[in-house]
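Can anyone check this?
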Amino acid sequence: MPLEYGVDDGSFRTAGGEAGIRKLVDDFYDVMDREPGAAVIRRMHPADLEVSRDKLARFLCGWLGGPKRYREKYGPIQIPKAHARFPIGGDERDAWLHCMAEAISMQDYPLDFASYLLAQLRIPAERIVQTGRLPGDESN
């Protein structure tokens, strides 16, 4: 019986478990480092991406139905609050999603899972735009 995405650990398992998610995250940050269109969001990260990689991988493990690794190490997940200090608008959201789309395309995922995953990642990406909006910025 095929795994159902978004049900139990189906997405986590389809993504390759923790090792597969770490590969996705590493590819994501590698894309961010080399894509000129991602320069603005790259500057929002520290020069050394070790902690950023760890946090995103741990978040995705739990978010995709696997072990709650982020909570184990960093505590409760507060995506909007953690990103509120950054001026994140639609352009930054789109750059992040572009890097993630590129990283997803580098994985050995079934095509329907790749589409599903990117669509689902739009949800937290949009939540960050909403809280990261600068006062008076009504463009996003």
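Reply from J.R.: I decoded it. DSSP finds eight helices and no strands in the chain.
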